[in-house]
Amino acid sequence: MTGVEGNAVWRGARRSAVLATGLVTVAIALNSAIGYTVYSNAADSVLSRVDAVVVLGGEHDGREAYGLGLAQRGLASTVLLSNPYGPTDPVMKRMCLHRNDAIEVICSRPDPLTTRGEAMMTRRLARERNWHKILIVTWRYHLPRARLVFHQCLSGEGVSIAAKATPRQYVLPVWYWQYIYLYQSTAIAKALSIDRC
Questions:
Q1: How many other β-carbons are positioned within 10 Å of the β-carbon of residue 168?
Q2: Do residues 77 and 104 make contact, with C-beta atoms less than 8 angstroms apart?
Q3: CATH 3.40.50.620 applies to domain 52-171
Q4: Strands 104-108 and 78-82, sheet pairing
Q5: Distance, C-alpha 43 to centroid of its chain
C-alpha cells in the first residue's frame, strides 16, 4: 500500500469514527429528551376512592408502605401487593402479615413475573371481587408502561385505572438513566406489539 492509499484509508476510518460518534451522541440525546419528558415527568392521577390499591413489584422503594398508607387514608378497603420476591423476602413478610380490620391485604404472585402478569392477576381479582376502579402504585418511570399494560388487560372489564408514583427522589448516575429510559421505551414498544392479555 502506498502512502497515498494509506492516507485515504486513514481518512475514511476517521470519517467513519466521527460519523459513528455523532450518531451515538444523537441517539443518547434523543433517549435523554424522550426519557425525561415521558418517564421522569410522568403524571400522577388525581387521588380518589378506588376499589383496590394495586402495588406493583420491583424495587423495595417504599411503594408497599405507601400503597398501604393510601388505603389507610380511606382511598380503598383492599390493597393488592404483587409478591414476585419469594417467601423469605423480609419486606413482603412484614407487609403481607399486616392486620387492620378496615383494610384487607392480599399478597399474590403474578404469573408471569412481569407487569403483564400483574395486570392479568389484577384482572382475575377484579372479576372475582367486582372491582370497577383501581389505583396502581409503582415508581414514576414505570407509570406510562404500567398504565398501557393495565389498560390493555382491564379496559374490556369495565375497570378504570388510576396510577400514582411512589414519592421518592432517585439519585442515579447518568448512564443508568439512559438504561432506564431505553428499557422503558423498548418495553412499551413490546407491549404495543401484543394485542392480547
A1: 12
A2: yes
A3: yes
A4: parallel
A5: 13
Q: What is the spatial distance between Cα 45 and Cα 196, in angstroms, rounded to a whole number?
A: 25
Residue 57 to residue 110: CA distance in whole angstroms: 9
Rounded to whole angstroms, the Cα distance separating 82 from 59 reads: 12
Q: What is the residue extent of each domain of the chain?
A: 52-171
Q: CA dist 159 to 22, 92, 125, Å?
A: 46, 27, 11
Segment (H or E) for 185? helix 174-193
**pLDDT of the chain along its 197 residues, tens only?**
555 555 555 666 667 665 666 666 666 767 677 777 778 888 899 899 999 999 999 888 899 999 999 999 999 999 999 999 988 899 998 888 877 778 999 999 999 999 999 999 999 999 999 999 999 999 999 999 999 999 999 988 999 999 999 998 888 888 888 898 999 999 999 998 887 78
Q: Which among 159, 190, 134, 170 is positioned nearest to 39, based on CA atoms? A: 170
Cα separation, 192 vs 45, whole angstroms: 22
User: What pTM value is reported for the model?
Assistant: 0.84
Handedness of CA 127, 149, 151, 140 (dihedral sign): positive
